Fold this sequence. Notes:
The chain is an all-alpha fold. The chain has one domain. It is built from 4 helices and no strands. Helix 1 (2-42) packs antiparallel against helix 3 (118-171). The longest helix is centred in the last third of the chain and has 54 residues, at 118-171. 26% of the residues are buried.
Amino acid sequence: MNTLRLFPKLVMAVGIAFALAGAITAGAGIYIRSFVTQQLAAQRITTPEDASIPNAPVTGIATALSMADVIQRHAAESSNGLTYAQMGRFAVPSGDPAGTNNPDEALKDANGKPVANAARNTQLTAASLVTSLSLAAMALGVAYGATALGLGFVILGLVITGLGYALLGLITPEVARRFGLQPVATGA
């Protein structure tokens, strides 16, 4: 009889493990969402007028992606559509954002040294900001997913635990009587 009761107890233990793992996962998702949202809010970023979501504080997925998009657009406008990798390190006398990597062709400062390509530096800064905002949006999405998955595991764990308890009721007279059931095994 003790061996017969072992299976329902194992089923209940598995259900409890699922519920606990789900609670931990949901808690981690909630913590990550809170942390990323606080970090974004601490930067006090507000989307500009020409963003897809204008004049909004950047604290969530939509506003972070909107801000990333507008930064990328502004950077592309300032560089004639060139990316960081397509531009030279040094500015040229003509002001072309493509610049040059040849120090002999570069615009020189008062000391005769090549001047850095400001458009290239702008693209590098823009790429860093776009990447940071995109990662924040992705982290928020993962946090929402982890929370939902965790809640799903909690529900699954509760269902499995209930099934284990029902199985135990089918073979244990004391448990069966609580629910007005007739046990399959009477313990004799």
